[in-house]
Design a protein that fits this description.
- The strands form two sheets. The chain has a three-stranded antiparallel beta sheet, sandwiched between helices. The chain has a two-stranded parallel sheet with strand order 4-5.
- It has a domain of 135 residues: 2-Layer Sandwich (Nucleotidyltransferase, domain 5).
- The protein contains six helices and five strands.
- Helices cover 37% and strands 12% of the residues.
- By secondary structure, it is α+β, with helices and mostly antiparallel strands.
């Protein structure tokens, strides 16, 4: 399992779960961040065709604002697991996130570089979210979403100052709620290590 979009200012967080078929593993699977967009897209389609089971789930920005990004990530991962047509025996999760489910699991920091199934999940989650954000770019022009995928680039932050946030921006995140400074560890989100908001100011 893996997630993407945790540090974005706009749009949902996305999680994917993949049960690989050991007899049909597409070559070239790697951490999604190490792949070109074209290669990621091709591999996502191949993984969808060859995996024993796979699923993607989203948790929207309003829910992120309500329950915080860590809990939203857990919820997305749980939804992805529950959508699998085959129930897994064991969960491997990237990072330090624990899925709220009564199932044996292990969190692996840097798992998308150490586990084939986590890497495959990272590809599915990244491609699914990117495709959604590209679609949303047409609905909300001016924020350069097609290029920044909702993350807090300079052009995106400048657009926020000029136009204000859309309904799909995360109003609890720095860079959206009117604060200029950003937490460099998390791509602009204002969180503490346990997932709660810190230094909140109205």
């Amino acid at each position: 399992m893996d997630e993407v979009g945790r540090g974005a200012l706009f749009g949902p967080v996305c999680a994917a779960a993949v049960i690989m078929n050991s007899q049909r593993i597409p070559p070239g699977i790697n951490d999604s961040k190490a792949l070109s967009p074209r290669r990621r897209s091709m591999l996502a389609d191949e993984i969808g065709k060859t995996a024993e089971a796979c699923a993607v789930a989203f948790v929207d920005s309003s829910t992120i604002d309500r329950i915080n990004i860590l809990e939203a990530t857990r919820r997305a991962m749980l939804l992805a697991v529950e959508k699998l047509e085959t129930r897994p025996d064991f969960l491997l999760c990237d990072g330090d996130v624990v899925v709220p489910i009564s199932m044996p699991q292990r969190s692996i920091v840097g798992g998308d570089r150490r586990s084939l199934s986590i890497a495959a999940a990272s590809i599915l989650a990244k491609v699914a979210r990117d495709r959604l954000i590209v679609d949303l770019d047409a609905r909300y022009p001016g924020y350069d979403l097609r290029n920044n995928m909702g993350y807090g680039t300079r052009k995106h932050r400048e657009a926020l100052k000029r136009f204000g946030p859309t309904p799909l921006h995360r109003s609890s995140f720095r860079g959206v709620c009117g604060l200029d400074s950003m937490d460099p560890r998390a791509g602009g989100e204002n969180v503490d290590p346990k997932g709660g908001l810190k230094n909140w100011k109205n």
